[in-house]
Design a protein that fits this description.
about 350 residues; alpha/beta; Rossmann fold; 3-stranded mixed beta sheet; 11 helices; binds uridine-diphosphate-N-acetylglucosamine
Length: about 350
């Protein structure tokens, strides 16, 4: 298939692009590089051995998006593009709604105008909200605690409404748990824009000496060691989930399908810090800190639906995730080069 990958130079988009190419698909990337760097593309070319077609485009601009589709002849779209920093979304809600909803709306309008029916959408476990008991299952009600999360809830709703209006659509809502890790080569990985918000990139930056230490947010949670637990999954497993979902969209009769992508296994903050210290051979100094507002004790997937319907299962361990993140971080302490 010829696939438009929006946000294809980002963390998950870049790893998925490589696996799509390896599976025999042709990829066209659309990205405005607002949260990624163009130098990712050269790395993707070295790793895949093929030229990477890309367009620098603002997907909230309907005319630009239409022009892209007019020349694209796409069979499917994987829509990663979007803003994803929780704290920033609280400070700049209008930008989050405008960007995340606006880009999805113009991509959907262009898909309709050009008869493209298959869409894989990047959703998040954040749509389970604050009160859901782990393990989380797809039929649970959705909710959010911040504007970023609401943009995911709202986009899921828009896509479900579209599936009712146009039963020929084939849409996958993929609810990612906590993606971490990097490509085995150590040449692509997560390169957060500004100060990272998430645990793994912070731990990696402490290990490599970019930061002095890590705050452990909350040590009094009702978990075995008192720190919060998450379902970390390797970005390569996550990328494989997209390839599997895309294949399934060619077989299913359901206009809209929802799949959790996680391992189903919780790991605490302390467990993650020790695994990373072991993988890197570096000390990770920590200091106990109060809970972070909006955090929950336990978030992990029930991945049974993805396993049964996509034949997908996350195989890589926490040690793999730490080893691969460390290879990327130690070889690229400052992330991707500017040019
Ligand atoms: C966060 C977002 C979620 C988003 C996801 C991916 C919140 C409340 N949730 O998920 O909406 O989809 O990122 O971008 O922000 N931790 C520390 N010290 C740190 C950083 C994190 O102890 O310096 C802890 C957190 O309290 C949490 C765990 O590490 O218990 C994981 O945090 P993080 O990586 O930010 O992921 P989530 O909170 O699960």
């Amino acid at each position: 298939m010829r696939i438009l990958v929006t946000g294809g130079s980002g963390y998950i988009g870049s790893h998925t692009t490589l696996q799509l190419i390896a599976a025999g698909h042709e990829v066209v990337i659309a990205d405005n590089f607002s949260r990624s760097k163009p130098s990712v593309l050269g790395r993707l070319e070295s790793l895949s051995g093929v030229p990477i077609k890309h367009h620098v485009i603002d997907l909230t601009d309907q005319d630009e998006t239409d022009r892209l589709f007019a020349q694209g002849a796409f069979d499917a779209v994987i829509h990663f593009a979007g803003l994803k920093a929780v704290g920033e979304s609280v400070a700049m809600p209008l930008e989050y709604y405008a960007n995340n909803l606006g880009s999805t709306l113009s991509v959907l309008a262009a898909m309709r105008a050009h008869g493209v029916k298959k869409l894989v959408f990047s959703s998040s476990a954040t749509v389970y909200g604050e009160d859901a008991p782990a393990p989380m299952r797809e039929p649970f009600p959705t909710s959010a605690t911040n504007p970023y999360g609401w943009t995911k809830v709202m986009q899921e709703q828009m896509l479900r409404d579209l599936g009712v209006a146009d039963p020929e659509m084939r849409i996958a809502l993929l609810r990612y748990f906590n993606p971490v890790g990097a490509h085995q080569s150590g040449t692509i990985g997560e390169d957060p824009h500004g100060v990272p918000n998430n645990l793994m990139p912070l731990v990696a930056q402490v290990a490599v000496g970019r930061r002095a230490g890590l705050q452990v947010f909350g040590t009094d949670y009702p978990t075995p060691d008192g720190t919060a637990r998450r379902d970390y999954l390797h970005v390569e497993d996550l990328a494989a989930g997209h390839v599997a979902a895309l294949k399934k969209l060619g077989e299913t009769q359901e206009p809209v399908s929802t799949w959790n992508l996680g391992t189903g296994r919780p790991t605490s903050v302390r467990e993650m810090v020790s695994a990373f210290a072991k993988a890197s051979g570096r000390e990770i100094p920590t200091v106990d800190a109060p809970r972070r507002p909006g955090d929950i004790a336990d978030s992990y997937a029930d991945p049974a639906k993805a396993q049964a319907e996509l034949g997908w299962v996350a195989t890589r361990t926490i040690d793999d995730m730490c080893a691969d993140t460390w290879r990327w971080q130690s070889q690229n302490p400052d992330g991707f080069p500017e040019a």
